[in-house]
Write a structure and sequence with these properties.
Order of helices and strands: EEEEEEEEEEEEEEH
Number of strands: 14
Strand order of the largest sheet: 4-7-10-12-13-14
Largest sheet: 6 strands, parallel
Distance between the termini: 46 Å
Shape: elongated
Strand content: 15-25%
Helix content: under 10%
Radius of gyration: 18 Å
Length: 201
Amino acid sequence: MREPPATDESITGEDWYGEDIGGRAWERTALRDVDLTETTSTSGLAFTDCVFREVRFNVSVHAGAAFANCYFANCSFFDASFADAKFLGSTFERCTFDRLTVQGGDWSFVTLAGADLGKASFEDVRMREADLTGARCDGAKLRRIDLSGASLGRASFERCDLRGSDLSSLDPLSMPLRGAIITWDQAAVLAATLGLDVRSE
């Protein structure tokens, strides 16, 4: 697990419930016990090298937000929505993601090791070289996700909708996949991974 970035200032116990926080930016800031429930941002929201502890993002809606190299610990993302957001290099530890919806954006190099994503939905998201080691994705929606170079050891994808996603990093012999939903093209990729000679006829 990556270490949290060093911070220069802190925000504790703030109540930003329902506020529009678009256009605001923080850098090297530690946020603890901050309520971001039902906040919105449609442009310009940026956090860089920030640390979030016990922060509630519940039912918040964000478009185009940027969370670069941030660290999230014990945060709640219940029913939160992120569209075209960037979480490059961010780390999530002991966070909850029930009904999280992510549409588009770049989550490359994120650390979600051990995360329970079973009730989350990710679509059209770049997650190159993401660390999903031990992640529980059973029942999740991970459609058209770029998982190239991702670490997927001990992850579980039972009943997961993986249609259109890059499965080149997935080892069908070492992780649970029962009931996962894939396309014919993806089935051929997995068969080739197993060493089968896949032909059209």
